[in-house]
Structure formats: C-alpha cells, structure tokens
C-alpha cells in the first residue's frame, strides 16, 4: 500500500513574477512521485486580521484554513521585506493561528524557504517566519533553505534554472516527507 503525501505550497509574495513562487513551482517539479505539492494562490484575498471576526472570518479565511487542514504539511517560501516577512503572509498566519486553541497550524509540519535578490537569501525573514510558526504550534522542519540572488537563478519565464538550488530544494522536500513518514509510523 503506497501513501501519497499532500503538501501545500504558500508563497509570501503577491507579485506575478515572484521569485518565491518560482521556487515553489520548482519544488512541484522536483517532488518525489509519492508527493503531491500544490500551490495555494489566494494570499491576496485574505482580509486583514480582526479578532472581532475570528469565529466568523468569511469565505477567504475559511477556505485557507481548510486548505491548510487538508494538507499533510506546508512549504512556505518567503521574500524579505524590511528584514522581515511580508505583511500579507503574517496576516494570513495570524488568521490560521486563531481562534486560540483551534489553530490549524498546531502540529502541522512546515518547511521554510527564504528567497531574496540579496546575498543572504532572506535569512532574517526566514528566522522571523520560523518564530511565528513555532509560536503558533507548527512543527518547523530544522532543514533551512536560503535562496540568495534569486534574480540570477530564475529565468525570464519564471523557472528556477540553478541545479544546485534545485537539488537543495528536492532535499528539503524529501526531509519534510521523512518527517511525515516518521509521524505516520508513530501514529
């Protein structure tokens, strides 16, 4: 009996030509055969977090929470804006982490990727994202992937062309699958 692992890719960038999204598309291409990685594309539709509405957040937040719940694990690729994660991504995670005690992030395995045009590969935003996820109860994969100088690694068609980065991306997905397999055996 074979198991297919369901991963949900979330890009922290809203740009049409996002390098973070390009990295996630590459992850789809390099994911092993027993891994179904789909890209969630509705970040722009998530309204600003308002605690007054956390019990009845509206359809965009409900759909996001359902997508996260349905996935075995998440792969989040984030750019770095002013040394941190983009506001829209933080906002979505605030919604996902609420209401208190009902977070869809609790126990959810998550791999984090930092993507930047700088020499540091969004290292600071990756650290901030890891902190937010950990506080929200997610199980953050220890394996780190920083993708520096992404503008030189993604071609004009939005494809990741660097074989070293592609290999590291595949390793990250395999590590996340390994974490899922470990949890499946423990259950």
UniProtKB/TrEMBL annotation:
Gene3D superfamilies: 3.40.50.360. GO terms for cellular component: cytosol. Residues 1-16 form the signal peptide. Keywords: Signal. This is NAD(P)H-dependent FMN reductase. It comes from the Bacteria. InterPro entries: Flavoprotein-like_sf, FMN_Rdtase-like_dom, NAD(P)H-dep_reductase.
